[in-house]
């Protein structure tokens, strides 16, 4: 038998690769006396994807450090968060999460018998817990509750009261699960500090909080269940994994917001303590890295090519996914998967979201946030700019736009814009354009044009969608004869609040609305 790790070794295992720890001294004090009791919770909403391997990898670290680990399937939270999980699907989705999370843990070699699994509704509907919710609501301000949930609870124009309850329930979970610490992503930080502020007011101890960094998705932004291109599903076929990795943002030499590198750092290295870059002999052959820093350095210096990195991650990832796919190939779990996440049925005629069978819908458009890397005058057309725009792909896109008389070149440089990405490439005075920068235009004369502006904090490649049309895959390329964009554009407009809309539904990113500076009532094109 291996000797038990020392408190210092346990501390290292528990905190490695974390972004932040609140309560470090308390953590070390407990480790010197006994094993740490910790929990990780997941709301049973959208289908788990490969980013869930990041907390799974840390759970493996916690077990190696001798921690007593509880996994909470937060079913009630899933309903409270703007009803992301409808009540009638709550039980089915919780069962799906239980099966898929256990399959993930088994695929990375975590012994399930060392873990405790709990559902939120096992204790959150008790008399004692409910009374504590009321006690907490009598001391928490609306401002603090809203602020605490800002990074986690879905933000909508008219929020429900349930979203204000969410942070308080998560704080109380620490007491009712009888843990020393809670583990989560750094997006949970405001809820964690909320718990530290308010639990003592009920006579309960302040807990330790451990935070993982937010791992970029394949587009360079946060990996999200609601953004199809940003994630790889746990049950995706091998050919789908290859396709998504091929499109992933992995610019040569760029180590910032690189989802491929981040997955290696936070999942593959902690699990295997090494990573093998697979290469043909003519390019130097395979190379084994035993330290992530060495791999990142070689990638930054372009010793490692993005194509080789993606191919190597594909092989390693499929090894993790194979046992999960095999488990979910059983008739019982196939049935559960379909029942928990049924395909959306078309709305009945006459209802608010009803569309004729042959109607075009906004989700057919591939609209993304882009960052303008360079702007030059078109060599053969004084009214045109030639821009290179980063939209989260391996290489920036070349886009030609007629903005010379409306937007000064220096205002475009390094600016975030909104780009339609699935128009058929078109030669414009000899330069092929692979997208359209979307702008607001005044209806009267003289004509005024303003760029559509994504919310502050967006990353290049983030999806822009129309409210109510978050789901559905955009077409790979719009067919000019079908005039999909032109038909939708007829109902594009700028609201009185300067928000971009389609049929009075807002253009959104995950951070908020898309707007323009001042052209109320304008058109969009």
TrEMBL record:
Could you cite one Gene Ontology molecular function of this protein?
tyrosine-tRNA ligase activity
GO aspect biological process, one term? tyrosyl-tRNA aminoacylation
Q: What reaction(s) does this enzyme catalyze? A: tRNA(Tyr) + L-tyrosine + ATP = L-tyrosyl-tRNA(Tyr) + AMP + diphosphate + H(+)
Cellular compartment(s): Cytoplasm; Nucleus
Ordered alphabetically, the record's keywords are: Aminoacyl-tRNA synthetase, ATP-binding, Cytoplasm, Ligase, Nucleotide-binding, Nucleus, Protein biosynthesis, RNA-binding, tRNA-binding
Q: What is this protein called?
A: Tyrosine--tRNA ligase
Name the source organism: Brachypteracias leptosomus
- UniProt-listed PROSITE patterns: TRBD (PS50886)
The record's EC number reads 6.1.1.1
**One Pfam family it belongs to:** tRNA_bind
Q: Name one GO cellular component term.
A: nucleus
Q: Write out the similarity annotation.
A: Belongs to the class-I aminoacyl-tRNA synthetase family.
Q: Where is the TRNA-binding domain?
A: 361-465
């Amino acid at each position: 038998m291996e000797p038990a790790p020392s408190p210092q070794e346990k501390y290292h295992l528990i905190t490695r690769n974390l972004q932040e720890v609140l309560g470090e001294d308390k953590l070390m004090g407990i480790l010197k006396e006994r094993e740490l009791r910790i929990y990780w919770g997941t709301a049973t909403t959208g289908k788990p994807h490969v980013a869930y391997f990041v907390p799974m990898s840390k759970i493996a670290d916690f077990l190696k450090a001798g921690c007593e680990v509880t996994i909470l399937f937060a079913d009630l939270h899933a309903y409270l968060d703007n009803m992301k999980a409808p009540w009638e699907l709550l039980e089915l989705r919780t069962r799906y999460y239980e099966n898929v999370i256990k399959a993930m843990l088994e695929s990375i070699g975590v012994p399930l018998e060392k873990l405790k699994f709990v559902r939120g509704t096992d204790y959150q509907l008790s008399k004692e817990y409910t009374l504590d919710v009321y006690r907490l609501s009598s001391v928490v301000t609306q401002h603090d509750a809203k602020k605490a949930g800002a990074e986690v609870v879905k933000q909508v124009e008219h929020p429900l009261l349930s979203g204000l309850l969410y942070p308080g329930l998560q704080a109380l979970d620490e007491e009712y699960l009888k843990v020393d610490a809670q583990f989560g992503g750094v997006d949970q930080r405001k809820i964690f500090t909320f718990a530290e502020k308010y639990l003592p007011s009920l006579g309960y101890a302040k807990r330790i909080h451990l935070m993982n960094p937010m791992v970029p998705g394949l587009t360079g932004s946060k990996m999200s269940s609601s953004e199809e291109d940003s994630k790889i599903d746990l049950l995706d076929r091998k050919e789908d994994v290859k396709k998504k990795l091929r499109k992933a943002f992995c610019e040569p030499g760029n180590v910032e917001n690189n989802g491929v590198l981040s997955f290696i750092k936070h999942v593959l290295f902690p699990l295997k303590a090494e990573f093998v870059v697979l290469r043909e002999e003519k390019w130097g052959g395979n190379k084994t890295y035993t330290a992530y820093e060495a791999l990142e350095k070689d990638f930054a210096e372009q010793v490692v090519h993005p194509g080789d990195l993606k191919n190597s991650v594909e092989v390693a990832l499929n090894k993790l996914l194979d046992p999960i796919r095999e488990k979910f190939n059983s008739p019982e779990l196939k049935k559960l998967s379909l029942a928990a996440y049924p395909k959306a049925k078309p709305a009945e005629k006459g209802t608010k979201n009803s569309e004729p069978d042959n109607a075009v819908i906004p989700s057919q458009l591939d609209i993304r946030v882009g960052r303008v890397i360079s702007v030059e005058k078109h060599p053969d057309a004084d009214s045109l700019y030639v821009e290179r725009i980063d939209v989260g792909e391996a290489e920036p896109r070349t886009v030609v736009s007629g903005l010379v008389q409306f937007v000064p070149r220096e205002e475009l440089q390094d600016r975030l814009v909104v780009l339609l990405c699935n128009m058929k490439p078109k030669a414009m005075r000899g330069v092929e354009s692979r997208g359209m920068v979307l702008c607001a235009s005044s209806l009267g004369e003289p004509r005024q044009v303003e760029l559509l502006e994504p919310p502050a904090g967006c990353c290049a490649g983030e999806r822009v969608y129309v409210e109510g049309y978050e789901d559905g895959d955009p077409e790979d390329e719009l067919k000019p004869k079908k005039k999909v964009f032109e038909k939708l554009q007829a109902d594009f407009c700028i609201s009185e609040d300067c928000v971009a809309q389609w049929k009075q539904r807002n253009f959104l990113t995950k951070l908020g609305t898309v707007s323009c500076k001042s052209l109320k009532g304008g058109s969009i094109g």
